[in-house]
Amino acid sequence: MTVKDILAAIQSPDSTSEDFAALPLPESYRAITVHKDETEMFAGLETRDKDPRKSIHLDDVPLPELGPGEALVAVMASSVNYNSVWTSIFEPLSTFGFLERYGRTSELAKRHDLPYHIIGSDLAGVVLRTGPGVNSWRPGDEVVAHCLSVELESSDGHNDTMLDPEQRIWGFETNFGGLAEIALVKSNQLMPKPDHLSWEEAAAPGLVNSTAYRQLVSRNGAGMKQGDNVLIWGASGGLGSYATQFALAGGANPICVVSSEQKADICRSMGAEAIIDRSAEGYKFWKDENTQDPKEWKRFGKRIRELTGGEDIDIVFEHPGRETFGASVYVTRKGGTITTCASTSGYMHQYDNRYLWMSLKRIIGSHFANYREAWEANRLIAKGKIHPTLSKVYSLEDTGQAAHDVHRNAHQGKVGVLCLAPEEGLGVRDHEKRAKHIDAINRFRNV
Ligand SMILES: C/C=C/C(=O)SCCNC(=O)CCNC(=O)[C@H](O)C(C)(C)COP(=O)(O)OP(=O)(O)OC[C@H]1O[C@@H](n2cnc3c(N)ncnc32)[C@H](O)[C@@H]1OP(=O)(O)O
Ligand SMILES: NC(=O)C1=CN([C@@H]2O[C@H](COP(=O)(O)OP(=O)(O)OC[C@H]3O[C@@H](n4cnc5c(N)ncnc54)[C@H](OP(=O)(O)O)[C@@H]3O)[C@@H](O)[C@H]2O)C=CC1
């Protein structure tokens, strides 16, 4: 039995759940990995010069044992997230430390502590097998998976599953991720695949869409409301392309920051009107490595006021981190919110705290999304209220190049990866719904 037989079953319109359940599973499959004995390969290099094409491998790996509450999924497509870039350059830490720590927690979790890490935190595909105790999902179900892995044995996570002390990001802090022909997930990660999308379109939003939903919309994040001025850094990037859609769909006013005219055009085509090209306008928030320039914060704030008719920012959607955080705190209005989920340019932030406390601003830390938030974010995709922002699709073999492009900020929106899917465009079940949204679905393609 090989993965080819699985693909044949997925492509046959007559396959039943029983057929999938009866399919023998292969002993091994192809997966994107990083190797434990290579974690020092970039020692001494600048972050920018660490090349994911050197550390990312395509290997044959053995199929992991299936445990209670888990599912094995045939992965038709996945996507590249920035967390896979971090894994591939071994920053800020090697992810093998996460696997070792997880491996120490239980007999079953030991499976994750391997000398290779199968990465990837998104998938669209078909359930192959479910473990004991899984009743809601069956072999043959077409699914996407969100990336929240929790144990839920502690009450700390019972109100908000992100607060579970054993919270992990699947394919980053656990093994057997989505950039592979088969993935292992907890069944609670599974959600119905939006039926108007192809496999690669359905795999694109998951991680970033859920994160943007919690960070901006959810009451656990900024709790955005109608009319809010929302400053969105990287508004055509992975997170930003969904934050921009949430702001527009929720009656807010996105102020989109991008770094090229081409990216500004994409934001316009989504419906945004207030756009700042940070490259063309040349903001330099830092005079040197240790000193910020408040005059540049003010120039940036003046530009925002020009675009809003004199208003300041209610919510900043932050993720660039060190380079922009001082400016983000400054331009927020009295009582406003800076919500942050990352620090791409550096995690040791500096800002002038007088502008925070004197103006009663709040900084909110946000990370991925709880089970419910991930489900709600996927529901909005399924209803055609929010659309994938897939620009380019790579083969599994070219995942290193895809991660390199994301690392170099040479991509738009999201980049996809075909795993088992032999070509793009497969997996669409509801053609009528798709036709209604086709322009929005294709907005980022090949730009
Ligand atoms: C969905 C997608 C998301 C993304 O893309 S996010 C971007 C990518 N992700 C990242 O860049 C994050 C990578 N992760 C990290 O950098 C690290 O993961 C953290 C900095 C988040 C945490 O580091 P750690 O080493 O796990 O935690 P510690 O707290 O520094 O060390 C653990 C030890 O410190 C003890 N400790 C924790 N809190 C306290 C305290 N308040 N007072 C005293 N000790 C404390 C613990 O118990 C434990 O101890 P013991 O080593 O003995 O087990
Ligand atoms: N905690 C969480 O749950 C999550 C965290 N993340 C993290 O968020 C970060 C962004 O992820 P994602 O949106 O997918 O990545 P992308 O690279 O797709 O998009 C980020 C955008 O940010 C802008 N940007 C990058 N560097 C800077 C900078 N120095 N100053 C201003 N703008 C900058 C770029 O846009 P432009 O050049 O047009 O300005 C870029 O397109 C990553 O660090 C990732 O690990 C992502 C998802 C979930």
Automatic annotation (TrEMBL):
Catalysed transformations (reactions): butanoyl-CoA + NADP(+) = (2E)-butenoyl-CoA + NADPH + H(+)
Entry annotated with the keyword Zinc: yes
E.C. number(s) listed in UniProt: 1.3.1.86
InterPro entries: ADH-like_C, ADH-like_N, Crot_CoA_red, ER, GroES-like_sf, NAD(P)-bd_dom_sf, Zinc-ADH_QOR/CCCR
Short name of any one Pfam family annotated for the protein: ADH_zinc_N
Keyword Repressor: no
GO molecular function: crotonyl-CoA reductase activity; metal ion binding; NADP binding
Chain segments annotated as transmembrane: none
Key words of the record: Metal-binding, NADP, Oxidoreductase, Zinc
SUPFAM superfamilies documented for this protein: GroES-like, NAD(P)-binding Rossmann-fold domains
Enzyme class: oxidoreductase
Residues of the Enoyl reductase (ER) domain: 51-417
CDD domains in UniProt: crotonyl_coA_red (cd08246)
Family recorded in the similarity comment: Belongs to the zinc-containing alcohol dehydrogenase family. Crotonyl-CoA carboxylase/reductase subfamily.
Record-linked NCBIfam families: crot-CoA-red (TIGR01751)
Subunit-structure text: Homodimer.
Name of the molecule in the record: Crotonyl-CoA reductase
Originating species: Streptomyces toyocaensis
